[in-house]
Amino acid sequence: MDNNIDFKDLWKQQAVSPPNIKELLSKLKYFKRVSLRKLVITNVLLIATSAFIIFIWYFYQPEFISTKIGIILTISAMLMYLFVYNKLVGFYKTVDRTQSNSEYLQKLISIKTKQHFLQSTMLSLYFILLGSGLCLYMYEYTSRMTIFWGIFTYVVMLGWIGFTWFYLRPKEIKKEQARVNGLIAKFEAVNKQLSVNE
Questions:
Q1: Number of domains within the chain
Q2: 43-85 per-position pLDDT tens digit
Q3: Which of 198, 197, 187 has its CA nearest to residue 20?
Q4: Which of 79, 121, 179, 196 has the most other CB atoms within 10 Å of its CB?
């Protein structure tokens, strides 16, 4: 019995299965659907939050100018983020079944680039404006509290912003990047496979 098995030779002889285009297209369709749903939910939540903040401003009539500036900064942060985030709708909607694999790949790379800008630059600006706005907004109400409760309120608020920034944001970014990178890698593999077969 021959114990000298050449694993490299066996590996080379292995048949390569052709890429499953239908499965890949269904994953792309799922990615598009999830991304559009997330975009709609984000729009609804941020617009509703902005409307609620405007209602509070109108109904409670804050006295301090810092409160009004805080409200303006907070709403500006939300509207600015939505303005940039909604530009992704065009990219998601133009992904359809009539495109070639290389066109899918280019769309995904464009989406990845836009998402990176949104997740780095825009999200940083969003958090800076939102944090500043909330700190200014809360000043009027915390100034009426005792020092302990005023500090406690700011610590809780800044703690939540910190938790969101340092834990939730990177986790969500990593998940989004993995989803897009996985699709890009699969389309690149399909393109390589198809170019080899031509």
A1: 1
A2: 999 999 999 999 989 998 899 999 999 999 999 999 999 999 9
A3: 187
A4: 179
